């Protein structure tokens, strides 16, 4: 998640770099964990949601899973 930290620092501190070469800026922690599960050949639900919700200090709960588009059906 270093690329995201660099982008945030540029924005917050009004830095004007000539260029910034960033690799793999992830959109959300949940989707990053989902992708890691899928890369290992393990279903991401409900494991990813449990890991992310427990890492945020709240009690694990699964109300409505939030996943990136294209993850729910076969018509991706």
UniProtKB/TrEMBL annotation:
Domain of life: Bacteria
Chain residue ranges for the region called Disordered: 56-76
Protein known as: Uncharacterized protein
């Amino acid at each position: 998640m270093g690329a995201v930290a660099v982008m945030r620092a540029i924005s917050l501190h009004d830095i004007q770099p000539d260029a910034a070469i960033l690799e793999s800026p992830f959109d959300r922690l949940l989707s990053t964990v989902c992708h890691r599960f899928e890369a290992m050949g393990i279903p991401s639900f409900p494991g990813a949601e449990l890991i992310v919700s427990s890492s945020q200090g709240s009690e694990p709960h699964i109300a409505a899973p939030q996943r990136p588009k294209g993850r729910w059906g076969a018509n991706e």
